[in-house]
Amino acid sequence: MPLDVYLNVAAAGVLTGLVYGLMALGLSVIFGVIRVVNFAHGEMMSIAMYLAVVLFAGLHLDPLVMLVPIAAVMFAFGYALQAGLINPFVTRPEHSQFLLVVAIALIIVNVLLIIFGPDARSVQTSYAYDSFALGPVIVDASKAYAAAAAIVFTVALFAFFRFTLVGKAIRACADNYTGALVVGLNVRRLYALTFGIGAACVGAAGAMMTLIVDVTPLIGPSYTLLAFVIVITGGLGSMPGALIGGILIGVTEAMAGLLFTPSAKSMFAFAILVVVLLFRPQGILGRRLT
Amino acid sequence: MTVLLSLQGVSKRFRGLVAVDHVSFDVPEGTIFGVIGPNGAGKTTLFNMIAGAMAPNDGTIVFAGEPINGLTPDAVCRRGIARTFQLVRPFPALSVEDNVVVGALLHRHDVSAARQHARELLRRLDLFDKRRQTASTLTLPDRKRLEVARALATRPRLLLLDEVMAGLRPTETDRMVAILKELNRESGLTILLIEHVMRAVMALAATVVVLDHGTRIAQGSPETVVRDPAVVESYLGAEAV
Amino acid sequence: MLLMLLLAALLAAPWIVNDYLLTVLIVILYFAYTGQAWNIMMGFAGQLSLGHAIYVGLGAYVAAVLFTRFGIAPWLGFLAAIPVTAACGAVIGFLAFRFGVAGVYFAILTIAFAEFARIGFDHLDIVNASAGLFLPVAQYAHNDLWRLRGSPTMFYYVMLAAALAAFMLCRALLNSRMGYFWLAIREDEQAARAAGINTFRYKMYAVMISAAVTSFAGVFYAFFYNNLFPEQVFNISRSIEMILGPVIGGIGTLFGPVLGAFVLTGLAESVNSAMLALGFDLPGAKQVFYGICLLLVVVALPEGVWPWLARRIGVAEDKP
């Protein structure tokens, strides 16, 4: 196959990977701070995707334009979920927390199934079939815009954690739960805030994702798993790691789809997961957890 | 008297911090041997190395004539060394009796025989009446006795006790001392104990080794060691009998 | 005793209930069976597996392929499935335990393997890939127990026998030396090692036995439903369905998986029937119901329904 096909596919992979990275970032933030393994992550993204689809169908508003409102709605959802349901579980054994979130995921997927049915929905924007050339490489316009939005959102998030008071408070909770309590931080509220932020990431990613793939209620679980592969590969608790992991997985998926059959591309993601879990469980950039 | 446990130049480093620095001593079979020293002296690290929870960087640990450094904790236990933990770790959801049965099953493959043996030990450690209670509901002194019972159930030749008196009131301490003395006298069980509670050390140990900053600074009978100026200096504020 | 009555009722069921209820009972017994098998790994040895569908799938495909291509009877197929699934469990267990993958990471690892199998089998020609493997559907007039072809009543008794056998097996295991070691490992693995238990070895046994026992469910599945699609058999929903019974009923208990299966499936089918009667046909409603049940149990009754019930009716189970 000629080189530019590889380049195009790889480029597409990078762009998609950036959106994956944003999705995984949400997971990383949640786990890094609250230490809860959010197994409903992909399911939350599918909620956002359906929101985008419905808004597009009803109001003809581009998902990228609706990005912020959708993220805001998901923020509220995440906040409520953590404050209402998950907060009491922070001190419970791991498998209890996990099963709680599994239950939530199960409910989300099937409620979506009841409301929207199993058929695929998509967002057909005016630029859906456009593409433009970046040097020797040809990229899809939708992917490019989605990736750009992902970058902007991510930068905003980094800035939030670096420079705002709340962001620093959250990082303090992550570093030292008891210490944060002792200093008078309202940890429960900060946890809810964090989950909300993680949900907002996933909401934004979901809005962007509608430009790239179709949505069915059943894609939630696959994205949850994908988010885990990315976060574990990149490093649990490391924000840059999530992005790097996202790009890595995006490219691997794309290349695997090209070199083998498209439907087998997730197998590579899983193979990577297994290898990382075995040999470098802290991931590329993560810190070792006891 | 034969030497049951021999530490030869044992060291442990944690990335630049030397926790145990070329410590050597011999524990004769059938004795009660104490290890004391201020906090951070390296006592528990030493225990962990003997018990197989971590491997020494240097030196050898010889038990009953065979080197045991590098063996896994379960292998060490099978060789005949049982240990208790500084922060007690009973099996919380299991009953007191079942806790000890687990230990007894190591060498007794038949469950009912193991249960018999467990009951004997529980009687010995004044826990027989509480045998059906769930371990998590026990008070601290009872949990400590339970750990000792479980450790004894594995039929050890050497028992490692890590601060087993901590948190016990004087009457409970005396009871534990009496039980340990009895075990040592009747079955010749060798006991190596880390202790801060001097009352117990004085009453139990025939020989005491003092560690400070990972090195041995004194060794001898409890009375001599306690008066050793180097020991007093390292211990500012020790509880004296 | 209560148990005897229940047993008698179950034995007499095909004469009492209609076809639909019989099928429901078969599903209940199926989940009671798989729940017991899963419980060996989780309830006894403390290892959370969320990819157990892989063992069902492997058992199903091994038996089905041997039957459709070589005419080998399902019972022999089961004998062949045992080493296959045990080996699969051993691989997963070895990788996890040697490399210290535990807790939630272990659960994720099991999910990854199940997904790997799902996608892999979707491309495997020997099992007809995603097009599905079909068993020849036989006439129901004639019950062939050896080849597992026959009426729902025959399948009912097979599953009942299997569920009883699983129960007895778990009881024997719990009271054995290995059972005690498993409980110790579940409670505190480090303390267990200090008591001389080779925790790696016993965890491996738990995984392999759990896998092998689960494989029979796969064989049954293949011969009862007569069709196998990787997408369905290895799906993560199957894995989650399997754990609902024991989690709701009570992880680590003997009656938990049984009670959980009865309560869950019984309630679900009732809700479903009620909704159909009211004119609602909502695919996915049952799963929402499962999710809510799971949520409620995890939040309110973390030990499961059985321990709570046992305390209420004054029956204490021997081993926690």
Order of helices and strands of chain A: HHHHEEHHHHHHH
Major sheet summary line of chain A: 2 strands, antiparallel
- Structural domain tally of chain A: 1
Question: What are the secondary-structure elements of chain C, in order, as H or E?
Answer: HHHHHEHHHHEHHHHH
Taking the alpha carbons of the first and last residues of chain C, their distance comes to 22 Å
Distance between the termini of chain A: 47 Å
| Low-confidence residue ranges of chain A | none
Q: Helical proportion of chain A? A: over 70%
Structural class of chain A: mainly alpha
**What average pLDDT do the residues of chain C reach?**
86
Shape descriptor of chain C reads: globular
- Beta-strand content bin of chain C: under 5%
Rg measurement of chain C, Å = 19 Å
CATH architecture designation of chain C: Orthogonal Bundle
Poorly predicted segments of chain C: none
**Biggest sheet of chain C, in brief?**
2 strands, antiparallel
How many beta-strand elements of chain A? 2
Verbal overview:
The complex is a heterotrimer of chains A (290), B (241) and C (320). By secondary structure, chain A is mainly alpha-helical. Chain A is built from eleven helices and two strands; from the N terminus they run H-H-H-H-E-E-H-H-H-H-H-H-H. Chain A has one domain. Chain A has helices at residues 3-34, 41-59, 67-86, 94-116, 141-163, 165-175, 177-182, 187-209, 219-234, 239-259, 265-279; strands at 131-134, 137-140. Chain A has a two-stranded antiparallel ribbon. In chain A, helix 1 (3-34) runs parallel beside helix 5, helix 2 packs antiparallel against helix 3 and helix 5 runs antiparallel to helix 8 (187-209). The longest helix of chain A has 32 residues, at 3-34. The N and C termini of chain A lie far apart (47 Å). Chain B has helices spanning 43-51, 73-79, 96-104, 111-124, 140-153, 170-187, 198-204, 222-227, 229-234, and strands spanning 3-14, 17-28, 32-36, 58-63, 66-67, 81-83, 158-162, 190-194, 207-212, 215-220. In chain B, helix 3 (96-104) crosses helix 4, helix 4 (111-124) crosses helix 5 and helix 6 (170-187) runs parallel beside helix 7 (198-204). Chain C has a single domain (10-312), classed as ABC transporter involved in vitamin B12 uptake, BtuC, CATH 1.10.3470. In chain C, 52% of the residues are buried. Chain A binds chain C through residues 37, 85, 88, 92, 94-96, 98-100, 102-107, 109-111, 113-114, 118, 217, 221, 225, 228-229, 232, 261, 263-264, 266-267, 270-271, 273-274, 277-279, 281, and chain C through 48, 50, 95, 99-101, 103-105, 107-109, 111-113, 115-116, 119-120, 122-123, 236, 240, 247, 282-285, 287-288, 290-292, 294-295, 298-299, 302.
